[in-house]
Amino acid sequence: MSILYYTLNNVVFTNFALYSTASIAKMMCMGAFTLTKRFSQDAFANPEDLTLARHHSSVVTTNDPDVERVRRNHLNDIENIVPFVLVGFFYVATNPNRDIAYWHFRIFFISRLIHTVCYQMPLPQPGRFLACAVGYLTTLSMALQVLFSTRP
Amino acid sequence: MSILYYTLNNVVFTNFALYSTASIAKMMCMGAFTLTKRFSQDAFANPEDLTLARHHSSVVTTNDPDVERVRRNHLNDIENIVPFVLVGFFYVATNPNRDIAYWHFRIFFISRLIHTVCYQMPLPQPGRFLACAVGYLTTLSMALQVLFSTRP
Amino acid sequence: MSILYYTLNNVVFTNFALYSTASIAKMMCMGAFTLTKRFSQDAFANPEDLTLARHHSSVVTTNDPDVERVRRNHLNDIENIVPFVLVGFFYVATNPNRDIAYWHFRIFFISRLIHTVCYQMPLPQPGRFLACAVGYLTTLSMALQVLFSTRP
C-alpha cells in the first residue's frame, strides 16, 4: 500500500519542489544583493576585501546600515524558508489534500516576496511583521500536521 | 530489491519526521521569542520598527544583551538542527537499525531542549557546552554512516 | 512508470548523499573551529562562559577579529551549502544525466573547500569571491533545472 510521494508524478510534490526552489532562489538573491550593497557602500567586512573597494581610504566595517538591512533580511529568510522546506518535505509524506497543500506552498512563497519588499523599501510596520507572520503560521500549520501524523 | 524508505510505513522515517519536525518547531520558537524580547526591551533593529516601541524615545539598537542572547541561541539552533535534519535524511536511506536510529533522533532532540534551557536560564558552564556537544556528535555519527555507505 | 530516485541504488542520489554530507560535515567543522578560536583568544560571547577563560580578567566580547572571521565563514557556508542540499534534493527528482549531476555535486564541494582555505589563510581577493561564485552558480544551475521541470 506504499505510495511514491517523492516523484514529479505526485502533483503535491511537484508544487512543493516549485515553490521551495523559488523561495530558495529568492533567498540566494539576498547574497548577491549584499554583495552589490558592499560595493556601492564600500563596506567590506575583511581587510583583504579592501583591494576591491573604489576608495583607497576605505576601512573594514561591519555596521553599514544599508548592508546590514540586506543581511538581516537574508538571515530572516534562512530562519523561515529553510524550516518551510524541511517541514514541507515531511508534510508531503502525510499525503495531504492536494489543494490545501498547494495553497500552503503558494501563500508561503508570496508572503516571503511581500516580506522582502516591505524590508527593502522599507514600508511602514506592521506590514513586514504581518508578511513574516503569515509565512511562519503556514510552516507551523504543516508542522502540526506532521506531528499529528507521526505521533507515537 | 529497492525499498521505500521515505514513507510513514517505515518506522525509522516516521521517527525521523517526528523528531526533526519537533526540533525545527523548537528552532522556530526562538524567532517568536526574539520578538517578545524586542518588545519587552524596546530593542528594535530597524528605524521603521520604532513605531512599535512603547517609548517614543527609543532608538535603533543591535546589541541589547537579552535580545542578542536569544539570537545567538537561534543561530546555534540553525547551525546544529539544520545539519541534523539534512544528514538524517541521507541516514534514513542507509537503512539503519531501527532502535539505533531511534536513539540518535531522540538523543539529539533532548540535547537541543537541554541546550536551550542552559542558554536561557542561563545555567553555569559547561552545561550548555556539553548539551551542544551531544547533539553535534549525534549528527556526526549519522554523517559517518552516510559517508561509509556512499563512498566510491 | 514511477522510478525510485531516493535510494542508494540510484547513483545520482548516492553521489548527492556523499557530497552533501561531506559539505555539511565541512560546515559543522566551522562550529568546532569557532570554539577553538574562542578559547585561544579568550573571546566569549556570554558572561557565564567566562568561567572557561584562562585569564580571570577576560570580559565578554563579540568582535574579536579571529573569531568573527570564522563565524562569517560559517554563516557563508549556511547561506550556500544549505541551499545546495535543498535544491539538490529536488534536482535528483528531475532525473538528471548522471555525469552532469556528478560534476555539479563535485564542483560545488570543491568550491566550498577552496572558499574556506581562501577565507582562513586568508588569500588575496578575488580568490574567495570566485570560489563562492562557482558554488553559487552550481546551485543556481540545479535550481533552474528544477524550476523548468516543475513549471505549471
UniProtKB/TrEMBL annotation, chains A, B, C:
GO cellular component terms attached to this protein's record: endoplasmic reticulum membrane; mitochondrial outer membrane
The reaction(s) catalysed by this protein are: RX + glutathione = an S-substituted glutathione + a halide anion + H(+)
Point out the coiled-coil segments of this chain.
Answer: none
Top-level lineage group = Eukaryota
Cited Pfam families: MAPEG
The record's section on SUPFAM superfamilies has: MAPEG domain-like
- List the Gene Ontology MF annotations in alphabetical order: glutathione transferase activity
Q: Which InterPro entries match?
A: MAPEG-like_dom_sf (IPR023352), Membr-assoc_MAPEG (IPR001129), MGST1-like (IPR040162)
Annotated compartments? Endoplasmic reticulum membrane; Mitochondrion outer membrane
What keywords were assigned to this record? Acetylation, Endoplasmic reticulum, Membrane, Mitochondrion, Mitochondrion outer membrane, Transferase, Transmembrane, Transmembrane helix
Known EC number: 2.5.1.18
Membrane topology (UniProt) = Multi-pass membrane protein
User: Transmembrane region positions?
Assistant: 16-35, 129-148
**What family does the database annotate?**
Belongs to the MAPEG family.
What role does it play? Conjugation of reduced glutathione to a wide number of exogenous and endogenous hydrophobic electrophiles.
Q: How does it assemble?
A: Homotrimer; The trimer binds only one molecule of glutathione.
Please report the name of this protein according to its UniProt entry. Microsomal glutathione S-transferase 1
Naturally occurring in which organism (per UniProt): Adineta steineri
